[in-house]
Amino acid sequence: MSRTWNQYIVKQENKALVLNTIIEETPISRAKVAQVTGLNKGTVSSLVSELIDNHFVTESGPGASSGGRRPVMLLFNQTAGFTIALDLGVGYIDAALTDLTGSIITKKHMKLHERQFNKVFTYIVDVINNLIEAMPKSPYGLVGIGIGVPGVVNHNGEILLAPNLNWKNIHLEHALHDVFNVPVIVENEANAAAYGEMRFGFKTPPEHMLYLSIGMGIGMGMVLDKTLYTGLNGFAGEMGHITVVKDGINCRCGNTGCFERYASEQALLEQAIKRGLVSGNEEMSVDLLIEKAQANHQEVIQLFKEIGQYIAIGITTMVNLFNPEQILIGNQLSKLSPWIKEDINYYVFRHAIGFHSKRVTVDFTSPEHLSTIKGMASFAIEKFLLSIKEVE
Amino acid sequence: MSRTWNQYIVKQENKALVLNTIIEETPISRAKVAQVTGLNKGTVSSLVSELIDNHFVTESGPGASSGGRRPVMLLFNQTAGFTIALDLGVGYIDAALTDLTGSIITKKHMKLHERQFNKVFTYIVDVINNLIEAMPKSPYGLVGIGIGVPGVVNHNGEILLAPNLNWKNIHLEHALHDVFNVPVIVENEANAAAYGEMRFGFKTPPEHMLYLSIGMGIGMGMVLDKTLYTGLNGFAGEMGHITVVKDGINCRCGNTGCFERYASEQALLEQAIKRGLVSGNEEMSVDLLIEKAQANHQEVIQLFKEIGQYIAIGITTMVNLFNPEQILIGNQLSKLSPWIKEDINYYVFRHAIGFHSKRVTVDFTSPEHLSTIKGMASFAIEKFLLSIKEVE
DNA sequence: TCAGTTTGTCCACATGTTAGACAAAGTTAA
DNA sequence: TTAACTTTGTCTAACATGTGGACAAACTGA
To answer: Who among residues 31-70 of B has its Cβ near strand D, under 7 Å?
Structure first.
């Protein structure tokens, strides 16, 4: 039933504690580790020597003295293994080879012109194989593959529905595991981005953070107590389909007045066409509208502000429900930031129940953060480090 | 910084594991505890003997043999200590003395005609003193006081705002601690009810549960991963103030189109008056309307269904956001269940994103559950059992 | 040059879990 | 009635691990 506690667990936990300390404060001396963790100096010495044997830690030259013997600095051996993390978007694959700190070694970008799963899958395999070739020799090699997808993923790594790819019931985790035979993690793109931003986007990571991915649809990744929350089956965060306008516009989900019918890229483009904001021979896109806004096209700016108003309503709702520390807006519509940021902040400040608004921060991210990739890499790394503990 | 792991911690954790096993499966033999927990028989024996010394466990007579020596059955000593839990409502105090399993020993109910804090506080103190007198002698005596309040409570037990009591910035935890000198826990009433229902309302407690308290206002208690989620400052769950109708009715919170302006007791009564559903000399109340509905008053039933429709919209939003296993509707409007339950289930099933609705269950609770009291008792008990671990 | 400081290792010791022996107390079947 | 088997609970020796403190090595600063 429950897990019992014995001396082996104690050792594993302490070893993990030492390793985490070294990861977070690398480079660091044994003495400092002992001081920070509260463990005995002798204990730290013995655990560190095992970590060195296992290639997780290396010794570098002596550090600066602080009035006594010079310390031997310990480094986390970030290249003891590598992960491959992918961001599968609509029309593209972004992929990266990362080390065990999540730092990106090599990047690949590929445009996709087909959406059929079988085709896309071979591209995915190709990209991964490419990155494996670029991978330096290391003690542990490839320790995991993480892939973020724009759709609903259950706890078994199965994609139940990815509307913009027109995929249904695809067991991607299985399929990739069969090919590469390493742990594979499949997660919703917004969830991964949320986790990635929490881990890498702040000096001190926020405890409770919501990441709104506002693209063609709207998804939300929730990091509560520094942990990704995904609900009973993994479907939590379907923010695009909360009702903001009773008896509002029909949504393909079968409901009416859904948030994403008012505040998404899709809503933006629909309105732009309806209002004739583009001439006949232009191809409609967010970037095109942004160009016009930059050229001070008042009607476009007005449209941006209207969409921003709806986004602000959604954010206010989230603040009232979750009392979060941080909200991040990502994906395509984060580009509207210059025209809507101030309005949103003002709206939330005025309309969220008083106390919250004093602490919550609303920011915009940019695609260059590679939040999804970094999040997926984090998942893979954490799974690897946990698996180590369980085996030894 | 982090907590280190040594043999003392191991012992504490194992002791807690043994105690929890005994609590959950009382009566149980030492041998069975060893089998269930995976601990060695000898370890269990030694830990149990300490638990007996500390009065947490008692031995009862021999149990039935299963083909060998008859086991000595161990019982959780539920009366080793007691808690007092209160539900402070608008116009009443409900209070109970409970044992360490949360079972109610004695109940008190008191109507309040005043709302001024000083007055109410003396009543609270009186009720607690009454219950203390009714408390049997026990090794640990009163181990904690828990009090659920209809307002916004921060992590320090301070009531920042209780609109229906007209209280602001009241440090209730401090005040009670000063009088009784035992641990005091103050929590929002919906949060407590959520926890109480999770702990005591099901055969197997749901992992992810939302409790909607629909009274004059609407609050939500969230139990995620069997833990109460309260957000950064403790203000999470302000569901009454999420926007469901863009540019809708003004709310006292400063926002417009808030959920509680359409789906609460307040909204119900307002509409009933507006539609002239009561004669001049009747005093308006939910119970009065229910009587009329029971007498088949069609307009009242129609009004109930309209309110139910809004409740369904709110629930659908919650299902889409949280992917919960269970939703419970409590407080005054749960009484409308006979007229709205089916409609709500149907609406949620039709409008929540497909996959969720297949698993989520929406139920109504009744005040007789004493959910808030039981939740507050749980908090107090858990705090007590934790404090034991830390000291020894 | 020497006293003081810091780092890291080593060893005896305390603590707690485990495995297994064992006795007590019961059941079952001939 | 008896003998073989089962179950329970205690006890002991063996083992693993963390702790505290001694100690040597390496360095600083006056």
So the answer is: 31-32, 41-42, 45, 48-49, 65-70
A10 to B13: CB separation less than 8 angstroms, yes or no: no
Determine the protein residue whose CA lies at the shortest distance from the C1' of C14.
B7
Long-range contacts from B161-166, C-beta under 8 angstroms, 24+ separation: B161/A354, B161/A355, B163/B217, B163/B252, B164/B90, B164/B216, B164/B217, B165/B90, B165/B115, B165/B117, B165/B120, B166/B115
Planar angle of CA B379, B384, B385, nearest 5 degrees: 100
Indicate the SS3 state at residue A333.
helix
A367 by Cβ neighbours in 10 Å (0-12 / 13-18 / 19+) ranks as middle
Residue A67 belongs to what domain range? 7-77
Same-domain status, A298 and A361:
yes
- Tell me whether residues A245 and B245 touch, CB distance under 8 A: yes
Strand C–CB A118 distance below 7 A: no
Element containing residue A98 per DSSP (H, E) = strand A92-98
Q: Which two tokens stand for residue B70?
A: 């008859």
CATH number at residue B43: 1.10.10.10
Best B28, B154, B235, B250 residue to mutate vs chain A (most A CBs within 10 Å): B235
Please list every residue in chain A whose beta carbon sits closer than 8 Å to the beta carbon of residue B230: 323
Q: Are residues A110 and A189 in the same domain?
A: yes
Last residue of a domain, one of A49, A77, A105: A77
| pLDDT tens digits in sequence order for chain B, 392 residues long | 346 777 888 999 999 999 999 999 989 999 999 999 999 999 999 999 999 999 999 999 888 888 889 999 999 999 999 999 999 998 999 999 999 999 999 999 999 999 999 999 999 999 999 999 999 999 999 999 999 999 999 999 999 999 889 999 999 999 999 999 999 999 999 999 999 999 999 999 999 999 999 999 999 999 999 999 999 999 999 999 999 988 899 998 888 999 999 999 999 999 999 999 887 677 778 999 999 999 999 999 999 999 999 999 999 999 999 999 999 999 999 999 999 999 999 999 999 987 777 789 999 999 889 999 999 999 999 999 998 876 55
Q: B357 contacts in A (CB within 8 Å)? A: none
User: Contact, A384 vs A83, CB < 8 A?
Assistant: yes
In sequence order, the β-bridge partners of residue B145 are B84, B184
